[in-house]
Amino acid sequence: MRLTEQAYAKVNLWLSVGDKRPDGYHDVETVMHTVSLCDTVALEISEGNGISLAVTGDGSVPCDARNLAWRACETFLRHSGRTARVRIEIDKRIPAGGGLAGGSSDAAAVLRALNRAFDSPYTPQQLMELAAELGSDVSFCVLGGTALCRGRGEVVTALEDPKPLHLLLAFSGEHVSTPDAYRLLDADGGEERGGATLMGCLGALQEGSMAGLEGHMYNRFEKSILPTCPAANAYRNALAKAGGVSRMSGSGSTVFAIFESEERALEAQKLLDFEVTYAISVKSYFKK
Ligand code: ATP
Question: Which of 10, 178, 255, 263 is the most buried (most CB within 10 A)?
């Protein structure tokens, strides 16, 4: 049996970080938004035992048990008590290690595909709970759309689809390790929201208000990460200059900007193509 799932990238429209918890994780409050950039994940399921994995499109991504998609497969089979031979094929388009949750999304796609293949042993909620064992962003990636995520990211509340957004993503190739990003927070003198609020962000999103988003989108990691990623910082400024509302996604270093229309996003892409390593115009992705 062969099954294919698209694994979509996300951006964070709001990301605030609370105190470190006794278990070592920080509490976060984040608005995640699925965009149309995706990897394709195909599963070949047959009788027998064992997992194999092939990745095309990005030679840097591991093809063994270090790959989160592999771990998702192991976790699903162990937890559900199923036995199968599973070959996973991932065609990567989401840049790895850039704050777009590419690995988490591939893992979520594997969970969704296996749940389909075995006639839904898990409800969507149970699948999201299983996903939380793999990583903080995986639960959201199982669901997709737009959601407010709390806890360490795994407590997911779905939000109504906002007006579709037109975005440009720019990635310099400057990799940021998420644990390092959390460590840097302790030394950067605390958050500076400049008047941005989560409620303001959610309101602006529903209204599709560019001015509201400009005032209220926020990412706690920008303050410490952007000074260490000069190219990403330059892209963020260039995207703003091109008329977008620009922020960093996750712990970086991908930056994105929201534009009034697809035309404006594509115009900005043309302007930036000469200086930016990787830029792609994307849209909000909504479930059908
Ligand atoms: P997040 O936004 O969830 O913090 P990210 O987008 O910054 O994640 P990923 O693309 O998930 O980062 O990749 C982080 C690291 O995880 C990579 O450097 C890579 O070696 C490893 N990795 C494991 N599995 C995958 C996968 N399926 N795709 C990409 N990277 C993977």
Answer: 255
